[in-house]
User: Fold this.
Amino acid sequence: MTAPLIAVQHLGIAFPNNQVFKDLSFDIQRGDFVTVIGENGVGKTTLIRALLGMLKPTSGQIKYFPNKKAIKVGYVPQFRNLDQEYPLTIEDFVSLNMRGWRPWLSKAEHRQVDTALRVTNVKKIKQRPLGMASGGEKQRAYLAQAIVQAPQLLILDESTASLDNEMKYELLDLVQNLNQTSHITVLFITHDLPLAKQYAKHYLALRPGQQEFGAMAGMSVEQLKEVSDV
Amino acid sequence: MFSLAFMRNAYLAGTFIAVICGTIGVFVIARNLSFLTHTLSEIGFAGAAFGIFMGWTALSGMLIFTVISSVIVGQMSVKQSRREASISAISALFIGLGILFLSLSNQTSSYATSILFGSVIGIAAGDVLRVAILSGIVLLVMLGLYRPLKFDSFDAIGARVSGLWTTAISVVFLVLVAMSVSVAAQIVGSLLIFILLTLPAAAARYFVHTVSKMIGLSILFAIVGVWLGLYLGYVTNLPVSFFIAAIECVFYFTALGYQRLHVGS
Assistant:
């Protein structure tokens, strides 16, 4: 549990006219549940893109253990514009993320999809077209697709923003369960401080020009509010 | 009817065309590319005119024009917001070129209409072979790319964040569409091509809800349309394209009606 999965060292990212990070350092331990909090435009998405390797740091480095190739990442993006007529069943949508060359799924791959559907609690409705699913069911299907490859790191990008209170906790319960039983490391980006407080082990608070990383235990929501200045 | 060589050829070529259009169409609809296929058929007309002007076959001219222009469109409009405008620009240019080459090659206007609306009688055994080979290539590439193509088409955001090479997939797919357009133009003509590339697949997605089933049903709709269209054209001596268009529209409107009854929206 104490071995780092990712070490961010003196990371700097700058766009023309905009220095997003200057000297950002923190470690994400294996099995950790880190929440990233901060206002819009403070660089949360930029940080994720850098972690995913979609963006080159201007200075500093991001180290992956044992190496970048060995770390599979599951990502639940913030926006997906799937309308009511989106045709695929939840099961077919989840299996989109199965790699390989074979046009059909092998038995083992079917089992993988089945497991993802089961642990995210959508197995009963797997034949339903995703367009007809409710907001909470959609988010669970997205989560199922993200974990179908058994990733080491799961990134949730504001995944609860469009959900009502009950559904939020339902989704996060599932994520916490994955974190505890399958030891998936979780990076949870959110505005929702009470939610972050309840589930995360560590927080990374981002403010313009200033960042703070620490343990969640013992912090009250008010203290969190102060550090993140949301 | 099958004692006539040209009808046999038409049925053979038509079947190949129905299979690849039905298959590709599912992805065309998923990627919101109906407008592009319409444009590509216009570009195909220009290419055919160019092929005649150069003294090649119409098919080679179409292939060159549609493939080149779809790669240009793919490069120009990776961003969705820019896609419509860049497609319009490309199509305007190519339609102009089509008229230019047609007038330069001194062909009569009846030749132009046979490019635009297709001509069943014009299909020789050699054409069938060419259509078969091109269909084979398109299907093989699709099969090899099936999973990434499926992911990118039905969940572009998920595919991008999972690290798929989505731009490359996009360009390869456009080339496949271009090849299908050129192939299908032989029978239904370049103007009506987008019917086979869009309507069967657009109808299929209301009845079934997995990619493989959608492909199967879309192929079935396309084949029924082509076979029945050819038959009715033979019996009535009216244009085949009209019948194919009408049949596919019946499928599509039936699907919309089914959806309304079923879901109420």
The first helix of chain B runs from residue 5 to 30. The mean pLDDT of chain B is 86. Chain B touches chain A through 23 residues (CB under 8 Å). Chain B is about 85% helix and 0% strand.
